[in-house]
Specification:
The structure holds 2 protein chains of 2 kinds. Chain A is an alpha/beta fold. In chain A, 27% of the residues lie in helices and 29% in strands. Classes of the chains: A alpha/beta, B alpha/beta.
Chain lengths: 215, 291
């Protein structure tokens, strides 16, 4: 990853440190920042996220990263990986203590997990198997139905064409999605031990093999 | 399907990990960071760090310990003990923890559960309940590490915190703590049937069978132990291997899985292999997986 500058967007949400730790463990160099110049210079973004939707959007807006990031991701087509809440903010809106407006990069809505069944408790917290729909590029290093750590009460509802893996907890839910250069995962690869580290490795290997589009 | 979780509690007192017995006696273990690192390598599903010093001496949270632990583990970390306000929660999460669990703070100011879950999300806010059966046969909530009886009934308090936005309940049985007699299954059942959020059962595990009971009879979403995991090599793997034999859906992906060993049901320990087998192992090369 020598030619690619990884930027972990620091917008004061939880799990930021854990993502840093995971990337450090894998030996990547990266920058953690929310400054405009850094966003413009970077080649690939990680958008972490633990927290409530409105708080995350508020922070993104206050730090003034929305406009710059949108430009880089939607126009310059730089890849981005949203994790958990970082994936949910890619949606158009969320019902969490809301409705609240999201970044709107992927058509869809974030709604509460409604299983209507006492056997499926909410939040959906713990290790769950995922069903891989699209193996390439996020799951190339994983076989079968690997498990990841989930911890969420809301889930992303979108068109099946964006879904790269699913999980089941009373209802089928999006575990990961992709729209061109925009990636998102509902689970926490930074907290999923070896499966999570393998996931990050697949993602960055893919980035390395695909030079970003220079404009 | 969502798997059952095996959770390790690291109880910290005076800056080091300890074993806790009946919320009264404490035996020293050593560095909490090293304990966490080993538990992570041995495939634990989650770690809860409980700093009881903070509670007793009203010290602040030891943020540097949380930072150090979070660097070594790639499983979720929950922090409990001595949390005073929203700012503490923010800092803990910034240090790399995933969840916090509050006890006294929730009892004195229940509204904080609501405020915190609106900022950090419900999934981040767990409430610890230390419960004990009182003379009238009612499970009551205790505060101050079991020192003070409140007038709250455990199930009623659990429902209340769920309504306020708590995402999980970390349920401790004071009587069973360190007893090795198994979980207080009545208590676990009472609470997990009262609420629709996950319940982590703790207090009393001393045999792999106890974890199985906690899941099957207690209907807990996660089973936790502190003392049990110390002083035994591969302790979480042994429990998981036992649970898997009893058809519990649990994550077991460590290099060692103990699929081919025998259990001594009475002691809950694995039986020794013949010397000829162990002799062969001396020349076997075990490589670590490269990611």
């Amino acid at each position: 990853m020598n030619d690619h500058k990884i930027l972990i967007i620091d917008y004061r949400v939880g799990n930021h440190q854990s993502v840093l730790n995971a990337l450090k463990c894998l030996g990547y160099n990266f920058l953690s920042s929310a400054r405009k110049e850094d966003i413009e210079k970077a080649d690939v973004y990680i958008l972490p996220g633990v927290g409530a939707f409105a708080e995350a959007m508020k922070n993104l807006e206050q730090l003034d990263v929305v406009k710059t990031l949108t430009e880089q991701v939607l126009e310059k087509k730089k890849p981005i990986l949203g994790i958990c809440l970082g994936m949910q903010v890619l949606s158009e809106r969320s019902q969490e203590y809301g409705p609240h407006r999201g970044l709107g990069w992927i058509k869809g809505e974030v709604v509460r997990i409604d299983t209507n069944n006492k056997n499926f408790k909410v939040p959906h917290v713990g290790w769950n198997d995922i069903k891989i729909v699209k193996k390439d590029p996020l799951f190339t290093k994983l076989d079968g139905a690997p498990n990841f750590y989930f911890d969420h009460s809301y889930h992303f509802v979108c068109d099946d064409s964006f879904v790269s893996s699913k999980c089941y907890h009373g209802i089928d839910m999006v575990a990961s999605l992709q729209k061109d250069n925009i990636f998102g995962v509902q689970f926490h690869p930074e907290k999923s031990q070896n499966n999570g580290l393998k996931f990050f490795r697949s993602f960055f290997n893919y980035i390395e093999n695909n030079k970003p589009v220079k404009c | 399907m969502l798997k059952k979780r095996l959770v390790a509690c690291i109880v910290v007192r005076g800056g080091i990990a300890v074993q806790s017995i009946g919320f009264k006696k404490y035996l020293p273990i050593g560095s909490a960071v090293i304990a966490a690192e080993f538990l992570n390598k041995w495939g634990i599903d989650e770690i809860i760090l409980v700093d009881i010093d903070n509670i007793a001496r009203k010290k602040g949270v030891d943020f540097s310990m949380i930072t150090e632990i979070s660097k070594k583990i790639f499983v979720p970390l929950t922090v409990a003990g001595g949390i005073r306000n929203l700012e503490d929660i923010r800092k803990i999460v910034r240090c790399g923890a995933d969840k916090i669990s509050i006890n006294k703070l929730a009892l004195t100011n229940p509204e904080i559960i609501k405020e915190a879950s609106e900022i950090f999300g419900s999934q981040c806010i767990a409430v610890s309940i230390d419960a004990k059966l009182n003379k009238n046969g009612v499970y009551k909530v205790f505060s101050d590490s079991g020192g003070t009886e409140t007038n709250l009934e455990a199930a009623q308090w659990a429902k209340q915190v769920e309504g306020l936005g708590a995402g999980e309940i970390f349920l401790n049985s004071i009587d069973r703590d360190g007893s090795k007699k198994g979980y207080d299954l009545d208590l676990v059942r009472t609470i997990s049937s009262a609420v629709n959020i996950p319940v982590i059962a703790a207090g009393g595990a001393g045999h792999p069978r106890h974890f199985l009971e906690g899941i099957l009879d207690g209907n807990a979403s996660a089973v936790a132990a502190g003392n049990f995991f110390h002083f035994t090599e591969h302790s979480p793997i042994i429990v998981k291997s036992y649970l898997r034999r009893h058809n519990i859906d649990i994550r077991l992906e460590t290099y060692a899985d103990y699929d081919d060993i025998d259990f001594d049901e009475e002691s809950g320990r694995i039986t020794k292999k013949p010397d000829s087998f162990l002799e062969k192992l001396r020349f076997e090369y075990m490589s670590e997986e490269i990611i």
